[in-house]
Amino acid sequence: MHIPELISDLALMLLVAGIMTLIFKRFRQPLVLGYIITGFMVGPYFTLVPAVTDTVSISTWSEIGIIILMFSLGLEFNLHKLASVGGTAIITAITEVVSMLAVGFVCGQLMGWSVMNSVFLGGMLSMSSTTIIIKAFEDLGLKGKKFTELVFGTLIVEDIAGIFMMVMLSTIAVSQGISGGELAVHLLKMIFYLALWLILGIYLLPTILKDVQNLMNDETLLIVSLGICFGMVFLAHHLGFSSALGSFLAGSLLAGTIHAEKIEHINKPIRDLFGAVFFISVGMMVDPALIVKYAGPIVLITIATIFGKAALSSLGVLLSGQPLKTAILCGFSLAQIGEFSFIIASLGISLGVISDYIYSIVVAVSVITTFTTPFVIKAAEGSYYYLDKYLPNKVSKYLNRHTSENQSETEKDGDWVAFFKKYFSRLILYSVIMLGIILAGTSLLEPFLAAHLPPKIADILATLVTLILMAPFLKQCLFRKNEYFIPLWFKSATNHLPLIMLLLLRKGTLLFLVMLPISIMLELSTPYILAIAVGLVFLIARSDWLINPYLKIEARFLANFNERKLEARKGKDIGHSWLDERIYVSKFRCSDQVAVLDQTLANLPGTEHSKLKVIKIIRGGKHINIPEGSEHIRANDIVFVAGSDRMLDSFAILTQVELDKKADGMYATLREFIKNQEAYAEDDQLFCYAVTVEKESDLSGVAIKDSKIKSEWGGFLLGLERNLYPILAPDINMHLQENDLVWILGTQEMAGKLAKDDLL
């Protein structure tokens, strides 16, 4: 029986790789180098060992290796990680990637290389090696140090930058030049599809996996996860993107689910196998004759990599506000290239736009910088002391004044930063969702209806369905309040104009999105389109029925997005501490001068939109618990209000009242308020009760505003937990669901009514 060449080739590769990994393990060296040397030994340039013959099949396995490696990289990444890295990692990664792109391009041009070779060389030099850095930190006993966390954060951002870079390089390669307009369009297209896939994936994937959880064992989870991986690869390729992008995105979607660790564990043997084949295939392309021939470029690129990345990465950390010592420790740790550089080189060769000799050069540089990395890291501290000693006094004073060890914590402060973060994240999120709905309506729904209905009816029906699907998101984006708006508005009059312009920008963007499907699918003139769009926006603004479907979508999305965190919280049996962390109580005494005197609670500034609750009024020794909205505030009333710290701050600014704070400048938590009521008579005290919504209870399926909570029980709903996800001050139009945990503030009398209705 004839054995296929692929089997004999794999036997040869894996046997040699097994021996080499044992040797490299014995001498505590990275296994990646062992695989590369294995590839060289079984390649066409080493005659002492039989050579691989079926290079076409091995190339296919190598391509699968890239897909699996990028999928595994995605499994280690999720949006929570990206949000947690902070400005230091982002600034460092951007500085390093952009500057090393330039250094690589200049090096290529100095050596007389083509523009395309130089561009790809810059891409290869811009990416540091996660594998090599982790190995070096473990060997040197540095894991857990503060600067290593900044390095890992930088590597996370670098991975994202690497994905974008591969898209840019592919576009440049296909067009055989750098066209700014084409590149921008391709990048915007990628960003849109990336965001759309993430939103849909987060909304659908965890829910589907949760529904079939009882059917999942290791085998089915492995098959499902790899199916999602290769399905995303196919979809990415169909849309004109690289397979690496599709597999990375598949991994990042699964990274946010409760199955992430298990998927990572059961895929590890497959990743190790195909990853080994990929690195072996890299080694097979190493030509010793080319290394000798290009010894000069190898030395130049190695020097540029070590010194360029060490200096420029340190500069990036310094620019982010970190002190000089931290900057140098981080920068010197990033002074190498590795696995991502091989992937970029493979991309260039597969596209046929870079020369084959570059592979050998990059592998040689990677091998050299792998061995130098521990020594460079060790040299960081000495380099810092040398620099600190010889830096001019003016420079040292400037750095000491403008940098801080606590920069990672303080860099997120500021109302404007918080406002912009919330403003743009919401606007982009809603815009992407609505553009996705428009894309589905115009490219899928409209052609389908046109095939079965008269053209005009099909166009009108497709437009209506598209706009109806967009409506819940339009309403929320138009009228959802940003809690940082009020503090900024009252902080300075100079903030008024930019805030107004940002509001107009948001409304203009949404008006454009309403006009877009109308203009695409209906043959109308611009004035008619504008009039219809304005009328629809006005109608949507007055339609309360749109709120509940949106709130259901949002609650499910947020629960899925935080699924992994919530599961970890459940496993640690933390309980419901979010009430302590996020609900605060403060009070003020109403004097004759305050603006709220004689106003009803329903008309208090800041309460209608901020959802702040007036929970108690003490008037002449009498306690009015959970007062009605028609209650007036009188002189000398002591008024207690509950909400988040931001709600309380905004309320104080709007009403010009002075809210009580503790000695540390913080508000008292709800738990502290309840605990400190011993001085009150028993009937005057307030308590917080947790009620689980049962299937047959009076709360199940009922909107908050229509429930018995206020009207019959005399309580306030402060928040609820749905699928473990906490929702503070939910919208009164939200419908309660079975298994919701509802937090109700009220008196002991209310507790009796809850018990009577079998809710306690």
Automatic annotation (TrEMBL):
InterPro entries assigned: Cation/H_exchanger_TM (IPR006153), Na+/solute_symporter_sf (IPR038770), RCK_C (IPR006037), RCK_C_sf (IPR036721)
Highest taxon in the source lineage: Bacteria
Residue ranges crossing the lipid bilayer per the database entry: 6-24, 31-52, 58-77, 89-113, 119-138, 150-178, 190-209, 221-238, 244-261, 273-292, 298-319, 326-351, 357-377, 427-445, 457-478, 499-522
Residue span(s) of domain RCK C-terminal: 572-657, 675-760
Pfam families: Na_H_Exchanger, TrkA_C
Keyword vocabulary terms for this entry: Membrane, Transmembrane, Transmembrane helix, Transport
Gene3D superfamilies in UniProt: 1.20.1530.20, Regulator of K+ conductance, C-terminal domain (3.30.70.1450)
SUPFAM superfamilies for the chain: TrkA C-terminal domain-like (SSF116726)
The keyword Transmembrane is annotated on this UniProt entry: yes
Topological type in the membrane: Multi-pass membrane protein
Subcellular location: Membrane
Family: Belongs to the monovalent cation:proton antiporter 2 (CPA2) transporter (TC 2.A.37) family.
Protein name per Swiss-Prot or TrEMBL: Inner membrane protein YbaL
Organism, scientific name: Sporomusa sphaeroides DSM 2875
Lineage: Bacteria, Bacillati, Bacillota, Negativicutes, Selenomonadales
